[in-house]
Amino acid sequence: MNPFSSGTRLRDMIRVIRACKTAAEERAVVRKECASIRAAISENDQDYRHRNLAKLMFIHMLGYPTHFGQMECLKLIASPGFPEKRIGYLGLMLLLDERQEVLMLVTNSIKQDLNHTNQYIVGLALCALGNICSAEMARDLAPEVERLLQFRDPNIRKKAALCSIRIIKKVPDLAENFINPAASLLKEKHHGVLLTGVQLCTDMCNVSSEAHEHFKKKCIDGLVKVLKDLTNSPYAPEYDISGISDPFLHIRLLKLLRVLGQGDADASDIMNDILAQVATKTESNKNAGNAILYQCVVTIMSIEDNGGLRVLAVNILGRFLSSRDNNIRYVALNMLMKAIALDSQAVQRHRVTILECVKDSDASIRKRALELIYLLVNENNVKSLTKELIDYLEVTDPDFKEDLTAKICSIVEKFSPEKLWYIDQMLKVLSEAGNCVKDDVWHALIVVITNAPNLHGYTVRSLYKAVQTAGDQETLVRVAVWCIGEYGELLVSNTGVLDVEDPITVTEADALDVVETAIGNPSSDLTTRAMCLVASLKLSSHFPSCSKRVSDIVRHHKGSLVLELQQRAIEFNSIIEKHGKIRSTLVERMPVLDEATFSGRRAGSMPPSVSTSQGALPKIPNGVAKPTSAPLVDLLDFSSDDIPVPGGSGGDFLQDLLGVDISPSISQVTSGTQKSGTDVLLDLLSIGTPPAQNPSTLDILLPSQDIKSPVDVLTKLASPSPSAQTSTPVGSSSMLDLLDDFGTTLSLPETNGPTYPAIIAFESSSLKVTFNFSKEPGNPQTTLIEARFTNKSPNVYSNFVFQAAVPKFLQLHLDPASSNTLPANSNDSITQKLRVSNSQHGKKSLVMRLRINYKVNDKDVLEEGQINNFPRDL
Amino acid sequence: MGIRFVVMVNKQGQTHLAQYYEYLNLDERRALEAEIVRKFTDCGLAPWIWLMVGGLAVNNAFFWMCSFVEHRNNKVVYRRYASLFFLVGVDNEENELGILEFIHLLVETMDRHFGNVCELDIMFHLEKAQEMVMSGCVVETSKANILSPIQLMEKAL
User: Fold this and answer.
1) B142 and A192 in contact by Cβ < 8 A?
2) Is A62 in Cβ contact with B134 (below 8 Å)?
């Protein structure tokens, strides 16, 4: 009768599957087996039903679909024999889950089995119920389970307890029925029942505050006593695990105490003694003992406490930290992270050990330790910690480098006491792990450098030295190239030497060498090369002796296949050759960037700016894909934006724009040092923009600076880019005023409300409906729609009726139409206003169904359609 | 719910026993198992220290590797016995060291039951593992108590 011994075919099947060399072979075997099982099912084969199901379970575990066997489970469960039921329940637990409707069919069988006289069958049913019970089943079967909590056999009691956990999780309302039986389980002597009883109580506390109160009042003393007995109990071989009596029960009890003691000083008081006893008495040379200690620490950390215990707990963690076992160190690090909120001083004491863990060979421990160190850094220890971390950066694995670098950069930025130190540390990081540094980090570095005029010379010299040894770190090269371009003359003339520096001699040619190597390096990417071109242009002005070499470099790239480089090279070439007079003005030093604005932008507006700039990116005509952090790059104006060259029609427009009287007090970004077109654009765009929204406008506009014709930029501003439009109504209107000067060649959207583009809501061969949108100020949920109807046919439409319907989350109000007759071949002759309120504004966009009735030549016509193309965010 | 899944895989990454205590559909399960197995094989788990415990070739502890791997929002606690990996997924509240001890108990129990447990035994008798975990909680911790009903059932057959 044993399903596994009645034939050897399950074994055979497993053996065949295991012998398969390839996944394809395995699939073939499984397919064949499934086919024969299906055949057996359709023949309603009684004898081999359980064996087939057992096979199906194995197949299911391998990850193949087995839904066709679900009904077989139910049949087996309904059969009277124990072996069949057993396989049936096993199948139920494996093949089905609470989401399947088939499960409803089994409720009755389970109910019968719960009342069965054979306790093993009751056990099976409880087990299955505990694993797959759904909310409906929970409601139906809760009384049976409640009764079984008092069953004579402990095996059934414990299963019933776990079943109850599932039930109250599914239906928390049922928890109150279980309070008393659960409390009585806590008085059990049988460890299994006690264990499950404690678990049940813990879970009840989580779902029901009533139960929580009840256990707090009635059960704490009892629990403390149980724990005390357990700790002091003599050797019990049955539950002994490496010399400790039932660590699982220990852990469960401590967990429940934690739940009960949280936020309750009295309750915490009662358990203080026993916690201290567990914490001091438990042996820590075995894993089981450590598990208890760990749980004890967790409990101590969460309950209300008098301080003494916490010191004890942190000391235990300190001991864990110095353990040789990685698992124990791992939990200690985890726990210290929580402890830091309670007592950072105590955790600081273990700083040295934690720092050692950062250098561990185990990835999990390293990661934890690094996070912990990050939390531990403050103004006082930042210097020594950073030094340690940077030293470690030199020897760490490549895959950990990225995490470590990010954390170091973040620490250095957050806590740097002075700029010199900041620059020094960042240069070290860049030369060690420049390839792991994120873009915004080195952008920030450049902002800091520009803001420290007394360190310009020092920085550029350090960079020069660093790049000699670590020329393969791309970001280092970028920063170095930028600085050499800006401050090259300080490098050569050795101005502003600090005491700490070793003097070096660099000739103009040496400086240019760096740039030339970087641009010639095949691994340099577009951004680096573009920066190199700009730097070399700048150097050509600072170092007249090198201008021949510079023009060679520039000319060399005139034929570059990358559009961006080619364009720059050609433009720079013409600057060098034709516009020698204005060259020095053009390549003057970059204006100092305002640190506060920059960090504000970085902190606040980064995520939105990324998304908006992505919206604008595809329109960049030369097709250069820029990194998503483009706004920053653009702000700094070195990587992808050349110094714009007046020339061509775009330049003329710029000149025109310059003629427009721009009030001088506009933006701090242009301090008047550079009369370049870009800055003028910036100026223009910030006119009339409310100052608070300045950053967001810039974000949207900056990525489009590549477009050479400023008209494009302006039309882009005025074209449907929702956030720009909604946030800067004033700005756009003043922009439009400016544009009026250009005459009428510009195709601008409707001037009355350019917020959202009009859509064609419906179009058939005879009729067209367009929607124009506007918003009420201060009420983003409501959209005003103006529907315009166009008759495309040569016939007059009479009795014209427009109807619209919307889903429930929308509210629609229709105003009467301007007329009910649509003349032949007319444009927009009927208008009708709709008002839609979107209760799910921001989550769902509008949808609408419409129906139009009219009469043509005395014939009724009905047209229907659905509109799904509403602009988003309405 | 403490325990989210118990999975046994062999060195080749084939699943031998899988029991989930929360709902995942088939594809999710497969992906999860494959992902975890990949994580382990990536770690480069050589060389081993073999210890004999209760007739089992046991790699007792990874002295150089932590037995906890964070995976999505779960923690996976694992232990390796001969060519079998026991993986237990737990939530963040669970005591990891306790689970580690539990895996050992599970294996010892099976060892006692089958005499000398091997991959095939476990595959043929997976229904017996049910006595220890139910609904994501540990049911019973005494080997004798776990085994007595199973033996009774065997006799009943």
Assistant:
1) yes
2) no
Q: Does B35 reach chain A within 8 Å, measured CB to CB?
A: no
The residue written with tokens 């970087």 in the block is A518
Name the CA dihedral angle for A583, A589, A594, A597, rounded to a multiple of 10 degrees: 50
Tell whether B18 lies on the interface with A, counting CB pairs under 8 A: yes
Q: Which helix or strand (DSSP H or E) is residue A385 part of?
A: helix A382-393
End-to-end CA distance of chain A: 68
CA distances from A443 to A437, A458, A525, A624 (A): 10, 19, 17, 20
- A474 CB-contact burial (10 Å; exposed 0-12 / middle 13-18 / buried 19+): buried
**Cβ contacts (< 8 Å) between A199 and chain B: which residues?**
137
Q: How many CB atoms lie within 10 A of CB A652?
A: 13
Report whether B78 contacts B67 (CB < 8 A).
yes
**At a CB cut-off of 8 Å and minimum separation 6, what does A395 contact?**
none
Please check whether residue A271 is in contact with residue A304, taking contact to mean a CB–CB distance below 8 angstroms. Answer: no
Please tell me what DSSP assigns to residue A174.
Answer: G
Length of chain B: 157
Instruction: State whether B98 and A90 contact (CB < 8 Å).
Output: no
- Phi/psi for B71 (5° steps) reads -140, 120
Q: How close B71 comes to chain A (CA, Å)?
A: 11
Helix A102-114, helix A119-132: angle, nearest 10: 150
**A216: which 2 tokens?**
């707090």
Residues of B in contact with A288 (CB under 8 A): 97, 101
Nearest CB partner across the interface for A4, out of B124, B134, B143? B124
CA–CA distance, A622 with A635 (Å, rounded to integer): 20
Residues 287-316 of A with CB under 8 A from B: 287-288, 290-291, 294-295, 298
Tokens of A432: 């060690």
Partner B contacted by A62 (CB < 8 A): yes
From chain B, the residues in CB contact with A244 under 8 A are: none
Strand (E) or helix (H) holding A16? helix A9-19
Residue B8 CA to residue A272 CA, distance in Å, equals 40
Q: What is the DSSP letter of A499?
A: T
CB contact under 8 A, A63 and B15: yes
Is A238 in the B-facing interface, judged by CB distances under 8 Å?
A: yes
Cβ distance A246 to B23 less than 8 Å, yes or no, reads: no
* B114 Cα to chain A: minimum distance (Å): 15
Specify whether the CB–CB gap between A61 and A69 falls below 8 A: no
Looking at chain B, which residue has its C-alpha nearest residue A254?
B95
A444 near B CB under 8 A:
no
**Mean pLDDT in consecutive groups of 10 residues from the start of chain A, 874 residues:** 48 80 86 86 79 82 80 85 82 74 82 86 85 85 88 85 87 86 84 86 87 84 85 72 77 87 82 85 81 88 79 86 82 84 81 83 80 84 84 79 84 82 86 82 85 83 85 85 84 74 77 83 84 85 80 83 86 82 76 75 50 36 38 39 39 38 38 40 40 40 41 43 41 42 40 63 81 78 82 82 81 81 78 82 77 82 81 72
SS3 sequence, A108-142?
Answer: HHHHHHHCCCCHHHHHHHHHHHHHHCCHHHHHHHH
Three-state DSSP state, A241: strand
Please report the residues numbered 52 through 71 in chain B whose beta carbons come closer than 8 angstroms to any beta carbon of chain A. 61-70
Asked if the bond preceding A749 is cis, omega within 30° of 0, the reply is no
Minimum-distance CB partner of A248 among B124, B138, B153: B138
Nearest to A120 among B95, B123, B156 (CB): B156
* Whole-structure pTM value: 0.61
- A816 CB-side CA count, 13 A: 4
